[in-house]
Design goal:
Strand order of the largest sheet: 3-2-4-5-6
Helix content: 25-40%
Largest sheet: 5 strands, parallel
Structural class: alpha/beta
Strand content: 25-35%
CATH class: Alpha Beta
Number of domains: 1
Shape: globular
Oligomer: single chain
Order of helices and strands: EHEHEHEHEEEHE
């Protein structure tokens, strides 16, 4: 961990936040009927898988789970990637009969979520779309808010949040906050 970094969630705190979110999702929906989870590639996918497992543990129902690649829906694609790495979309359930909970790691400007909604409607029109995120750091540029949040973390514009999950990054799960590279400490 960099000198300017500090841990804001441990692996156990991530686990507890996801269990709480899983209960909130079921409670807000009024059960599990017609409910599906869709993880945004990369870190939203393992978070959605963990939510699916938590809901199965306390409700005895395994929700449909999809993955969503938003690469070609980003409004900054030309700036961030000359050769974009496409990770794939898998929505192998009836989207139009479902209330979809989009799952991602960090909600910041709202642009990723807007891209996810654009990508989602290319595959069908869900009954409703909700959003679950592990971290909401503020600084919205679009009128988007999360329905389910693991932790609200007010940040400065020169800070970044890094979510590390063992499925994607190896090692231990954690969330850290640090100064953006190149910023004075």
């Amino acid at each position: 961990m960099a000198e300017s970094a500090r841990r804001i969630l441990t692996a156990d705190e991530i686990r507890r936040a996801l269990i709480r979110i899983s209960h909130e999702i079921v409670e807000k929906h009024g059960g599990t009927a017609d409910l599906a989870l869709v993880g945004i590639q990369r870190r939203g996918v393992p978070l959605a898988q963990r939510l699916q497992a938590a809901i199965a543990a306390h409700e005895g129902v395994t929700l449909p789970l999809g993955t969503l690649d938003i690469t070609f829906h980003r409004d900054d694609l030309a700036r961030v990637a000359r050769q974009p790495h496409v990770k794939g979309t898998d929505l192998s359930f009836d989207l139009e009969a479902s209330t979809i909970v989009i799952v991602d790691d960090v909600l910041y400007t709202g642009r990723t979520v807007r891209a996810a909604m654009d990508a989602l409607v290319e595959h069908g029109r869900p009954k409703a779309v909700r959003l679950a995120v592990l971290i909401d750091r503020g600084h919205r540029e679009l009128p988007i808010r999360a329905d389910h949040v693991g932790k609200n973390v007010p940040t400065a514009s020169d800070e970044i949040i890094r979510v590390r999950l063992h499925e994607v990054d190896g090692g231990e799960d954690e969330v850290i906050i640090e100064l953006r590279p190149g910023e004075p400490g």
